[in-house]
Amino acid sequence: MKILMVCLGNICRSPLAHGILGAMAKAKGLNWTVESAGTSNWHVGHAPDSRSVRAAKKLGYDISSQRGRHFIAAFFDEYDHILVMDRSNYRAIISLATDHQQKAKVELFLADDEVEDPYYDDLLFDPVAQQIEKRCAQLIDKFSK
Asked: Distance (Å, rounded) from C-alpha 36 to C-alpha 3?
C-alpha cells in the first residue's frame, strides 16, 4: 500500500504524519510506503521545520532525513490513499483530480476535521504531533483490515 500525506508546505504537518505512520507501519511489519508532499512549492528540497523535527523526536520518531516535495497530478496514479491535513489543501488536491477514481483516493487525514497548521505558533507543534500520532494508530487499524 502506498500512502501520501499532504499539507501546504510539506515541512510541518505532513512530514510528521509521513514519519510517524511510516514508523508505525514498519514496526507492525506492514509493507507500506508512506511519503509526503505539499500543495505549494515553497520548500521543495528542504528538511522539515526544526520544530516538527523536535516534536517528532520527543515522541520517538526521526523525520530529519525527509525533504519537501511538491504535489503533482501523477501522484494520483502512484498512491492508494492521499491524506490531506486541512480543507484548503483538500480542495487544492481535488481540483487536480481528473476523474472520480482519483477523487476517491483523497480524504482528510482526520476524516471530519483539520490538523491545525503549527507554523506560526511554536506552542502548537507538540500537540499537533501528538494528534497526528493518535490518528496514525487509528489509520494502521483502518488500512490493515
From this structure: 8
